[in-house]
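task queued by scheduler; priority normal; single chain, no ligands, no partner chains; default sampling; output format set to C-alpha cells
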Amino acid sequence: MISLTLSFEALFINDHTWGDTCMGNAISVIVPIFNAEKWLLRCVNRILNQPFRDIEVLLVNDGSTDRSGAICDELALVDARIKVIHKSNSGTSNTKNVGIMASSGKYIAFLDADDEIDELFFVKLYATAEEHDCEVVISGYETVPTGLRISPQYRLHSLLNGKDLILSAAAVHSDNDLCFAWRSLFLRESLERNVVKFHEGLTIGEDTIFHLEALLAAERAYALPDTLYFYTVNNLDSLMSSPYKPYLEKSLILQYELRKRISEEFGLYAHSHFKRDMAAYHIGSILSMLIRNFKNSPMPVTKADLIRILNLEMITNSTSVLGYRYKCSSLKEYLYYLSIKFKLAAVLYNWEFNTPLITSLLPFRITEKSKPVNDRTIR
C-alpha cells in the first residue's frame, strides 16, 4: 500500500495565497495518468504544496492497470480541489483533450505524473499572464537527474504575438522550443475559441503541434527564463522509453505533415531561418531517431527499409531545402549527409549496420552529430 499521507502545508498553506478568484478557478491543472503509481503522490503533493491555492487539479486516469486509479480516488477525498476522471485507455492526446474539456479555470497547465514543479510555478506564470494579459506564457525547465537547465531560446521578457515569438528563436526546431506543453500556461478561452487541441493521431510529438497552434492563435505571448519545471528524462517505465516503437515512423510522418502545413499556412515557412532549421532538425534528429528505432527492432533491417525512409517527404524536402549548405562539424559528417541527400541506401546501410571496411573508413554516425535527444524531447 502506498502511503497517502500529505504534509500539513499541502492542505493548509499560510495566509499568503495567490490568485484568489470569486468565479471559478484561476488555473486548471491537467495531469494525464497511465500506470503512474510510483510517482503520482509526489507529483500531486508538489501541486498541492504551491502557495498558489486557486486551482483545480484534474487527474485523468487513462485506463491504468496499476493502483493509479485508486490513488487518484483517495487523493480526491483529501483535497476538494482534486477532480478525478476515469476513462478507457486511448493515449495521451485524448487524455489531455478530455482534461481540457472538463476544465473550468481561466488558464490551463499540464503536468506529467512522473515530473515535478517549482514551488512558484503557478505564482510566476499566473502573475506574468495577468500582468501582460497573455494567452501563452512559457518558462524554462531542468532535466532530472542530469540537472541540465534549459531556458526558452525565444526573445525573453518581451510581449509579442505568438508568431513573432516563434520567429524570435534562431533554431526553434533544433532547440526543441516548441516541445513540451507542460512548460507553459495557456488561456483556456483562447484554446476554445481557436479550437486548439491535441491531435489524437499523434503518439509522439503531440505537444509540439499543440504548442505551435496555441502560439499562432495568441496575440500576446511571453517567455520567461525561470527554471520552473523538473522534467524526468530517464524514466524507464515511461511509454516513451521503450527501445522499439512500431508506431514511430507513422507518427513522425504525421507530425512533419502537420508542422509543415501549419507553418506554411501562417507564413512561418516563408522565413529562411525557420525553414532551414526545420530541415536541419529532420536530418539531424528525426532521421537519427528512425535509424535508432531500426536498430532496436526485433525484425532484421533491410536496405529496403532505408530506401523507404530516405524517400519520405520529410527527408527529401529537407535535403532539398538545405542543398549543399548543411552545417557540419567534420568532413565525415558531410559525407554522411551526402549519402542521405543522394539516397545512397546501400552506403547508408553499410555505414549504420556493421560493415567493417566502410565503418572503419567513415566512422561517423548521424547519432553522433545530432544533439543528445531523449525520445521525450519531441513531444
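post-processing summary
- Confidence is low (pLDDT under 50) at residues 1-22, 357-377.
- The longest strand covers residues 221-232.
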